[in-house]
Amino acid sequence: MAGKRKKAQKKGAIFNGKGKAILTLENGLIFEGQSFGAPITKQFPGEVVFTTGMTGYTESFSDPSYTGQILVSTYPLIGNYGVSERRFFESEKMHIAGLIVSEYSDSYFHHSARQSLADWLIESGVPAITGIDTRALTKVLREKGVMLGRITTSVKNGEFFDPNTGNVVATVSIKKKRIYAGTGPRIILVDCGAKENIVRSLLSHKATVIRVPWDYDFTREKYDGVLISNGPGDPTRCTATIDHLKRAFLKGKPILGICLGTQLMALAAGAKTYKLKYGHRSQNQPCIEEKGSHFGKAQGRCYITSQNHGYAIDEKTLPTGWKVWFRNANDNSVEGIYHATKPFRSVQFHPEACPGPTDTAWVFDEFIKTVLRARKK
C-alpha cells in the first residue's frame, strides 16, 4: 500500500480586491469580471494570448516564454489542484503578465500542493480575473488574432504595451555562465529563457551542461554540442545569438534548437520568420514528422506535443540544404527543421514537456547519440 499523501486543501483563498476587474482589448472590446490575483492598483498591460491546455498551469505560468503576456485559459475551471512545490516550477518565478479564467476554484486538493493559485498570484504581483466568458474572448483572438490588452478596474483610457517591440529574452536569460557537472558530453545550453526541464533532460543523459546567457559567445568554449533554448518574444531581436549561431554552423558540431531556438537557427541559416495569427499554446498540438527525415522513431507518425510560441518559420525562405522535419497537423506550419548533411536539427515544440506529453522525449535521446558519434570522429 502506498504511503499516506499529505492533504493539501484550503477553503476561501484570498480574492483580494473583491471587486470588479476589467480586461480591455486594443480593438475596444471590454470584458468584466472579478479580481482574484494581485491588487489592481495600476494598469497591467500585455499581449493577450490563449492556451488550450487542460492542466499544467504551474509549469506554464513559470515558463519564461510567457513573459509580457496576459494568458487566457480556455479550460473552464482553474485552481482546483493548487500550486505545487517550487522544485516543480520551470523557472524561479511566475512570468505571465496577467491571467484570465472562466471560473477560479478557491478550494484545491493535490498531494503536492503547497498553496492556492490566488496566493501565488498575489506573491508574484500578477493580476487575475475570473468570471470572464473565455469562450467568447478566445473566439475573438482566434478570428482577429492575438492583440494587446490591459487589466484595470475601470474603462478609462490607458496605455497598451507590446512586449515584442523590445528584446524580452535579455530580461529572462541568466546573467552569467553556470555549469552543471556530469560525466558525459559537454553541452552548451544557450539560455534564451530556458525551462528547467531542459536542464533536467540533459542531466538525465549524464551530460555536463554549460548554461550561458543569450548573448554569450559560446563558440569560444570547449563543447561537444549546442542546445538553443526556448524563450519569449520576437526572434529577430536576438541578433547576438544569431551571429554566434552562424559561427557555430561553421564548426559543424551538433546543434539542437527548441521553440525560440528553432526560429533563431532558421534566421542564422538565412531563412525568415513570421508572427502566427494566434500562436500555438497548449499541451495538445499534433505534429507530423516528415517522411525521409532519417531521424525519428517512426517517420510519418503524428505526435501530440507541448507548445508555447507565437512565431514560425517561413518555409519558402529555407536555404538550400535545410528541410522541414515536422509540420503542425492543424495549420500545416513548420514545426521543425534539419540540415540534410550536417548535424543541425530543431523543433518548435517542447520535447522536455512540463507540462504535457513526453511522446517526443526521444529527441533528446537522438541528440545525445548524435553528439557522441560526432565526438568519436
Automatic annotation (TrEMBL):
<dbReference type="Pfam" id="PF00117">
    <property type="entry name" value="GATase"/>
</dbReference>
<dbReference type="Pfam" id="PF00988">
    <property type="entry name" value="CPSase_sm_chain"/>
</dbReference>
<comment type="pathway">
    <text>Pyrimidine metabolism; UMP biosynthesis via de novo pathway; (S)-dihydroorotate from bicarbonate: step 1/3.</text>
</comment>
<dbReference type="InterPro" id="IPR050472">
    <property type="entry name" value="Anth_synth/Amidotransfase"/>
</dbReference>
<comment type="function">
    <text>Small subunit of the glutamine-dependent carbamoyl phosphate synthetase (CPSase). CPSase catalyzes the formation of carbamoyl phosphate from the ammonia moiety of glutamine, carbonate, and phosphate donated by ATP, constituting the first step of 2 biosynthetic pathways, one leading to arginine and/or urea and the other to pyrimidine nucleotides. The small subunit (glutamine amidotransferase) binds and cleaves glutamine to supply the large subunit with the substrate ammonia.</text>
</comment>
<dbReference type="InterPro" id="IPR035686">
    <property type="entry name" value="CPSase_GATase1"/>
</dbReference>
<dbReference type="InterPro" id="IPR006274">
    <property type="entry name" value="CarbamoylP_synth_ssu"/>
</dbReference>
<dbReference type="InterPro" id="IPR029062">
    <property type="entry name" value="Class_I_gatase-like"/>
</dbReference>
<feature type="binding site">
    <location>
        <position position="231"/>
    </location>
    <ligand>
        <name>L-glutamine</name>
    </ligand>
</feature>
<protein>
    <recommendedName>
        <fullName>Carbamoyl phosphate synthase small chain</fullName>
        <ecNumber>6.3.5.5</ecNumber>
    </recommendedName>
</protein>
<feature type="binding site">
    <location>
        <position position="65"/>
    </location>
    <ligand>
        <name>L-glutamine</name>
    </ligand>
</feature>
<feature type="binding site">
    <location>
        <position position="311"/>
    </location>
    <ligand>
        <name>L-glutamine</name>
    </ligand>
</feature>
<comment type="similarity">
    <text>Belongs to the CarA family.</text>
</comment>
<dbReference type="InterPro" id="IPR036480">
    <property type="entry name" value="CarbP_synth_ssu_N_sf"/>
</dbReference>
<feature type="binding site">
    <location>
        <position position="308"/>
    </location>
    <ligand>
        <name>L-glutamine</name>
    </ligand>
</feature>
<dbReference type="GO" id="GO:0006541">
    <property type="term" value="P:glutamine metabolic process"/>
</dbReference>
<keyword id="KW-0665">Pyrimidine biosynthesis</keyword>
<comment type="pathway">
    <text>Amino-acid biosynthesis; L-arginine biosynthesis; carbamoyl phosphate from bicarbonate: step 1/1.</text>
</comment>
<feature type="binding site">
    <location>
        <position position="260"/>
    </location>
    <ligand>
        <name>L-glutamine</name>
    </ligand>
</feature>
<feature type="active site">
    <location>
        <position position="350"/>
    </location>
</feature>
<dbReference type="GO" id="GO:0004088">
    <property type="term" value="F:carbamoyl-phosphate synthase (glutamine-hydrolyzing) activity"/>
</dbReference>
<dbReference type="GO" id="GO:0004359">
    <property type="term" value="F:glutaminase activity"/>
</dbReference>
<dbReference type="GO" id="GO:0044205">
    <property type="term" value="P:'de novo' UMP biosynthetic process"/>
</dbReference>
<keyword id="KW-0028">Amino-acid biosynthesis</keyword>
<keyword id="KW-0055">Arginine biosynthesis</keyword>
<dbReference type="InterPro" id="IPR002474">
    <property type="entry name" value="CarbamoylP_synth_ssu_N"/>
</dbReference>
<keyword id="KW-0067">ATP-binding</keyword>
<feature type="binding site">
    <location>
        <position position="233"/>
    </location>
    <ligand>
        <name>L-glutamine</name>
    </ligand>
</feature>
<feature type="binding site">
    <location>
        <position position="263"/>
    </location>
    <ligand>
        <name>L-glutamine</name>
    </ligand>
</feature>
<comment type="subunit">
    <text>Composed of two chains; the small (or glutamine) chain promotes the hydrolysis of glutamine to ammonia, which is used by the large (or ammonia) chain to synthesize carbamoyl phosphate. Tetramer of heterodimers (alpha,beta)4.</text>
</comment>
<feature type="region of interest" description="CPSase">
    <location>
        <begin position="1"/>
        <end position="185"/>
    </location>
</feature>
<dbReference type="GO" id="GO:0006207">
    <property type="term" value="P:'de novo' pyrimidine nucleobase biosynthetic process"/>
</dbReference>
<dbReference type="GO" id="GO:0006526">
    <property type="term" value="P:L-arginine biosynthetic process"/>
</dbReference>
<feature type="active site" description="Nucleophile">
    <location>
        <position position="259"/>
    </location>
</feature>
<feature type="domain" description="Carbamoyl-phosphate synthase small subunit N-terminal">
    <location>
        <begin position="19"/>
        <end position="152"/>
    </location>
</feature>
<dbReference type="GO" id="GO:0005524">
    <property type="term" value="F:ATP binding"/>
</dbReference>
<keyword id="KW-0547">Nucleotide-binding</keyword>
<keyword id="KW-0315">Glutamine amidotransferase</keyword>
<dbReference type="InterPro" id="IPR017926">
    <property type="entry name" value="GATASE"/>
</dbReference>
<feature type="active site">
    <location>
        <position position="352"/>
    </location>
</feature>
<feature type="binding site">
    <location>
        <position position="310"/>
    </location>
    <ligand>
        <name>L-glutamine</name>
    </ligand>
</feature>
<keyword id="KW-0436">Ligase</keyword>
